[in-house]
Amino acid sequence: MYQAPKGMEDYYPEQKAVQQKLFKVFKDAATRYGFLEVDSPAMESFKLLSAKSGEEIKQQIFMIEKRGSEEMGLRFDLTVPITRLFVTKQRELTKPVKWFSIGPMWRYEAPQKGRLREFSQLSVEMFGSDKPEADAELLNLIIDIMKGLGLTDKDFFIKINNRKLLEGILLTAIKKEQLEEVTRVIDKKNKLTDEEFEQELLDLGLDNFKIERIRHAIQFNGKPSKVLKEIKEHFADVPEETKAGITEMENICKLIDERYVVLDLSVARGLAYYTGTVFEVFDKQEKFRSMAGGGRYDQMVELFGGEKCPATGFAIGEAVTTLVLKDCNKLPEPELAPDYFIAVVSDDVRPDALKLAQKLRKKYKVDTDLMGRKLKKQFEYANSINAKKVIVVGPDEVKAKEFTVKDMKTGKEEKKKF
C-alpha cells in the first residue's frame, strides 16, 4: 500500500476543513491591514533560492531533475519568491507595497513534531518603508492573528531582537568573519545542551573566554523597556550601528503591546538575509517550535537585482500553530455536515428531489442519495454524515409543494414550502 512521502502529510476532509479555517483567519487579518494577496510558482531557479540563504538552507532545497540549462528547486519559503515578484515590477509600484501569500513549500530536513518536509505558511511582506511603524504593524498583525485564533497573552508571546544590536555586541568578542556562523549557532541554542552549544562554538575556533562573553551577551531577556535599559548600562561603549539597533527597538516597542513581547538577545533567526528587527512567536510554555518568525531584510531587493529598498516581513506556519491550538484546546472544529440531506420515498420523485437540491444549494450545503437506498437507509446515511436536517420528498409532497423537514438533532418534524 502506498503512503505519503516521509515528512509529508495527507489532509482528509476533517484536517483540510481545520486548515482552511486557519487560513481564513490569516487571510482576513492580513486583508484588514491593507495587504494584498499574491502567488508564485512552486519552483524557482536554484540560483535565486540560494542567493542569500546560508549553507544549511542550500542543503535543504528540493532540487528538480535538470531538464534544461537552468537548475531549479522547490521554494523553501515565500519571502524569496515574493521579493522576486516585487523586483520584477519595482519601478511601477507605489510604496509601500504590502503583499501576502499562503501556500505550500518544501525543505529536505529531518521530520519531527511540527517540522515537515512539505508545509504551508502565511507569508506577509512589506517593501518600501524603513520606519519603525512598518515593523510595529507586522508585530501588531501577528498579535491580531493569534487573537483571531482564540489565543491570549497567556497562550503565546513574541521574542524580539535586532540583528544590528546582537551583531554589535558579538563583535566585542569575535571577528567579523565569524559573525554569520556564530549567529547561526546562537539561533539554535535552545535546541542544544549547554555542552553542545559550547562545543559548536569551540569548533568555530572560539576560546572559552570568548564563549563566556557570548553567553553573557545573549542572556538578556525580559520586558523590552527594562532590557534595553540594562543593555545600555552594560554595553555603553558600542559602535554607532549597535546604538542604531537599540534606538530601532525602543521606537518599535513604543508602538506595540508589551504584554505580548519579550526582548531576547538570543533570537537571531537562522536565515542570513535578516538585517534589523527579528522576532519569533512561541507558545507560552515553549513546548513547541516557533509558530511564526520574521524580521527586516533591507538588502534582499538589491541582492535580487532590484534598486535599494527596505523590506520587512514574517511567516506563520500552519503545522506548529495547529499543535499549539490543539494543546490549548482551541483548535477550531471542522464544519463538514450538510445543512440538508434530501431523502426520496420512491425513484419516480428523484428528478423533483434533484431540482429542490439545486434550488437550496444557492444558499445551503445540500447532499442527496446517489446510491438508490431505501428510505430507512437514507436516514441512516444522513445521520452518519451528521446532516442537520432531512427533507423527505415523496409523490404527495411534490404534488402539494410542501415537504416534511426533520431536525436530526431534536427529532422535531415540520412541513415546509421551498
Oligomer: single chain
At the first level of CATH, what is the class of the largest domain? Answer: Alpha Beta
- Number of discrete helical segments: 16
| Proportion in helices | 25-40%
**Which stretches are poorly predicted, pLDDT < 50 over at least 5 residues?**
none
What structural class do you assign from the helix and strand content? alpha+beta
Radius of gyration: 27 Å
- Strand order, main sheet: write it out: 1-5-6-12-11-10-7-9-8
Which overall shape is indicated by the principal axes computed on the Cα atoms? elongated
Number of domains: 2
The CATH superfamily of the largest domain turns out to be Bira Bifunctional Protein, Domain 2
Query: Residue-averaged pLDDT, rounded?
Result: 92
Number of strands: 17
SS strand fraction: 15-25%
Largest beta-sheet characterization = 9 strands, mixed
| Spatial separation of the terminal alpha carbons | 47 Å
CATH architecture assignment of the largest domain = 2-Layer Sandwich
